[in-house]
Specification:
The protein is α+β, with helices and mostly antiparallel strands and 298 residues long. Helix content is 19%, strand content 36%. The radius of gyration is 18 Å and the shape is globular. The relative contact order is 0.17. It binds fe (ii) ion.
């Protein structure tokens, strides 16, 4: 049985890594360190990094890093993907070193999103020290947070995560950008893996040139969200959605743009779910209040 534990990390590509260093330290409040080949690690906890920036030709999202418990679980994922006819690429020694893991494989889902699966993270467990005093981030067994990925090939992409990788549905939302009755409805499936975070992966039935709709990182107090909002304004970072509270994971958050052209949700108070007693549902509203996404289009 395949079991993905958590979204261990995300990888973003950047034409100017120094922008991520500034954004990471001065807006997110994370610690940074140099990574191989001119890259940058963003440290949020005792691990060496939770967000990896790689130097490249584009400013975009690159990969979602899923982790499993051990080598046995890793072999099971590799076998399941092979049996499903999914082409996997074994990580090179340089990749394993850059990602700080024992072993790693990558694959592309039917919508073109790149995923990595790894086991056995390496770290010195140095404590997190924010350069601007942020108290910490909610990570651990819950992973870095969640990622929302474009999924034009929606059914095939969801089938891969559900039937091959063992994800399950948390809830459904159907989105339209305009009141036009001819606009096709786009599905968003919020899905979870083997940890209590309400969703680690959401699939959005639309294209997104930057490769990601948004990622979410979580702080342990509302004041940390407010302080991040202040820093976003002070540093001139673009607001992508106003402060609000989501219906499905009850997260209170705001969204801002990152140097790699996808949004980042900075939130507090996300639901941790007992999956034995969860019923999947469809919500007809995104938020209880707030979260005006129209500001992102201005
Ligand atoms: Fe989110």
């Amino acid at each position: 049985m395949v079991k993905i534990d958590a979204l261990a990390y995300v990888v973003a590509e950047s034409t100017d890594v120094s922008k991520w260093k500034h954004f990471g330290e001065e807006v997110l409040g994370v610690a940074t360190a140099e990574a191989p080949e001119g890259g940058l690690y963003l440290k949020l906890d005792e691990r060496k990094y939770r967000i990896a920036i790689v130097k490249g030709k584009e400013d975009r999202y690159q990969a979602s890093g899923w982790e499993v418990a051990n080598e046995t679980a890793f072999d099971a994922v590799a076998a399941a993907l092979k049996q499903a006819g999914v082409t996997t690429t074994k990580g090179s020694e340089a990749q394993r070193k850059a990602r700080c893991v024992q072993d790693l494989l990558s694959f592309t889902d039917p919508s073109g999103n790149l995923h990595e699966v790894s086991w056995g993270f390496t770290t010195d467990f140095a404590r997190f020290v924010s350069p601007i005093g942020v108290e910490g981030f909610v990570t651990g067994e819950h992973g870095v947070g969640h990622t929302v990925l474009p999924a034009v090939e929606f059914d095939a992409t969801w089938a891969l995560f559900r039937d091959v990788l063992g994800f399950n549905l948390s809830d459904i939302f159907r989105h339209k950008f305009t009141p036009d009755p001819n606009e096709p409805v786009k599905r968003i499936y919020f899905t979870h893996c083997a940890n209590p975070r309400h969703h680690s992966l959401a699939l959005f039935e639309m294209a997104m040139p930057s490769g990601c709709v948004h990622i979410m990182i979580e702080v342990p107090s509302m004041d940390e969200v407010g302080r991040a909002y202040d820093r976003m304004q002070k540093q001139g970072v673009k607001l992508m959605a106003t402060l609000g509270r989501h219906v499905n994971d009850r997260m209170t958050s705001f969204y801002m743009n990152t140097p790699s052209n996808f949004a980042l949700e900075y939130g507090y108070g996300g639901l941790m779910v007992d999956w034995e007693h969860h019923q999947a549902f469809e919500s007809t509203a995104v938020s209880l209040w707030g979260h005006d996404f129209s500001v992102g289009f201005k």
